[in-house]
């Protein structure tokens, strides 16, 4: 989940197909690899984008505009057969494959690098639900907003996932998938009951707890592009409760440190799983945001212990309605519509995360408060708006009681996540918009101090869906004691390391 009160920018997709279908690639440099991709003729909707394609500069754009990736090719398959054929082309020419669902990797890893093949799953938009079991089948090209919309239309169903409607379901589900329903239903990855994956050999594998069970374990928590190309998810959906209450409580900025302390202490004592919440501190705002699966009166009772610690807020709002109205409210806070999650702004960011099993210490509270009170200035381009922030999000509840073991198990028992960093927002543009130098320096100082003060264990623990390249011992922070088993599975299913990126599961 990303910080609030900003506008999302989504990866460009649905380009003008007529310009870049296989038959229109006469100006593409004739290389054996490109020629191999051009011969894939299975589904007429599949298409290829190369550096000579008119829309290549749009096709390569990611959510985080701080990166300027220029992969060797971007292939948009419309079928698993075409996706498998593209994987075989890459394997036969020793070209690394990078899967892309929504393009929301904090470090831009789904953008590939020079010479790599990005396989974008935008065209995988199939959707169906089994009303007897509540299991929904979802193509990996979906964004969360479209998933919520289709589930609601199909019979007022929901799945536990994030609030930002532009996020692709692929990386989100494979890396955990925390959201405003987690305490009630668990992580999104906990509710994945089956997957389709294109292997490094170009085979379509159907994966579940009874079929390739080791890989089923690995993909749910560590599967974000390391093991293969996941094209489809089967996820347990639930009937939405009749009433859902959205909560927004604003506190004076001057009290942000005390409110952070109170939020941590309250999070450690929450007993009800019907409530999930976050605390946003940024832009001179201190705002509690929550979702309660029940009536307004019960929501007020659930939040009362927090308010007894913080004292009277500046503003308080409880809005009772349906689950879909609640999801639409969170989408609106990101400046987008739930059924059309395309942002109107260019966003470059440097965001990081840490996971805490105990409330923040006084030292950590002081570090956070000091950095937020002295945020960076964009000297290079003062017209751009900077947002420095910290978001604390409750975990616990059903997250700690999954239905089956998974690679996410090392994070069971976490009290809350802390996401922190800086974003630069500008009018929409397709060109690279690198993070300002002063922003990067501020973020590095903030991170260095917070890592040094980390009070929740002997080693850092962080959330793999908020991956950052500079974190010390990153793979250990993300996967803990599960890393050795993940390496073994990687060796077994992708021994030539076809699917790789800078912080992928390694071969050793």
Automatic annotation (TrEMBL):
The keyword Membrane belongs to this UniProt entry's keyword annotation: no
Any GO MF annotation of the entry: oxidoreductase activity
Keywords: FAD, Flavoprotein, Oxidoreductase
Protein name: FAD-binding PCMH-type domain-containing protein
Organism in which the protein naturally occurs: Entomortierella parvispora
InterPro entries referenced in this protein's UniProt entry, alphabetically: BBE (IPR012951), FAD-bd_PCMH (IPR016166), FAD-bd_PCMH-like_sf (IPR036318), FAD-bd_PCMH_sub2 (IPR016169), FAD-linked_Oxidoreductase (IPR050416), Oxid_FAD_bind_N (IPR006094)
Pfam families referenced in this protein's UniProt entry, alphabetically: BBE, FAD_binding_4
Highest taxon, organism lineage: Eukaryota
Record family assignment: Belongs to the oxygen-dependent FAD-linked oxidoreductase family.
Names of required cofactors: FAD
């Amino acid at each position: 989940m990303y910080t609030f009160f900003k506008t999302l920018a989504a990866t460009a997709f649905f380009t003008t197909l007529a310009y870049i279908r296989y038959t229109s690639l006469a100006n593409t440099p004739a290389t054996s690899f490109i020629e191999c991709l051009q011969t894939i003729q299975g589904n007429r909707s599949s298409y290829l984008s190369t550096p000579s394609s008119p829309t290549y500069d749009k096709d390569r754009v990611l959510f985080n505009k701080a990166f300027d990736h220029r992969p060797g090719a971007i292939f948009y398959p419309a079928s698993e057969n075409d996706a498998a054929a593209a994987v075989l082309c890459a394997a036969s020419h020793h070209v690394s494959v990078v899967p892309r669902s929504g393009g929301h990797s904090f470090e831009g890893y789904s953008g590939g690098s020079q010479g790599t093949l990005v396989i974008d799953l935008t065209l995988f938009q199939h959707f169906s639900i089994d009303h007897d079991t509540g299991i929904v089948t979802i193509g990996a090209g979906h964004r969360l907003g479209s998933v919520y919309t289709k589930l609601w239309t199909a019979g007022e169903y929901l799945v536990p996932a994030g609030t930002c409607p532009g996020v692709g379901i692929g990386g989100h589900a494979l890396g955990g998938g925390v959201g405003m329903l987690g305490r009630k239903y668990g992580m999104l990855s906990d509710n994945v009951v089956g997957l389709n994956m294109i292997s490094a050999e170009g085979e379509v594998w159907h994966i579940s707890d009874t079929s390739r069970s080791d890989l089923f374990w690995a993909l749910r928590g560590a599967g974000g592009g390391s093991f293969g190309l996941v094209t489809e998810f089967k996820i347990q959906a639930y009937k939405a409760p009749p009433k859902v209450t959205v909560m927004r409580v604003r506190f004076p900025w001057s009290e942000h440190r005390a409110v952070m302390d109170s939020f941590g202490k309250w999070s450690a004592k929450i007993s009800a799983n019907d409530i999930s919440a976050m605390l946003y501190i940024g832009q001179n705002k201190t705002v509690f945001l929550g979702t309660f699966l029940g009536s307004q009166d019960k929501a007020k009772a659930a939040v009362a212990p927090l308010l007894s610690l913080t004292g009277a807020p500046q503003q308080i709002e409880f809005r009772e309605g349906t689950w879909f109205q609640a999801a639409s409210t969170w989408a609106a806070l990101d400046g987008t519509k739930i059924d059309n999650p395309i942002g109107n702004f260019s966003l470059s960011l440097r965001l990081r995360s840490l996971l805490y099993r105990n409330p923040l210490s006084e030292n950590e509270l002081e570090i956070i408060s000091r950095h937020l009170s002295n945020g960076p200035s964009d000297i290079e381009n003062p017209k751009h708006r900077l947002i420095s922030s910290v978001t604390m999000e409750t975990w616990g509840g059903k997250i700690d009681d999954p239905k089956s073991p998974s690679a996410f198990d090392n994070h069971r028992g976490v009290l809350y996540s802390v996401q922190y960093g800086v974003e630069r927002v500008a009018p929409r543009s397709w060109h690279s918009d690198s993070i300002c130098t002063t922003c990067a320096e501020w973020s590095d100082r903030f991170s260095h101090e917070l890592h040094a003060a980390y009070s929740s264990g002997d080693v850092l623990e962080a959330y793999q869906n908020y991956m950052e390249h500079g974190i010390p011992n990153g793979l250990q922070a993300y996967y803990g004691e599960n890393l050795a088993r993940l390496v073994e599975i990687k060796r077994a299913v992708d021994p030539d390391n076809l699917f790789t990126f800078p912080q992928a599961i390694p071969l050793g």
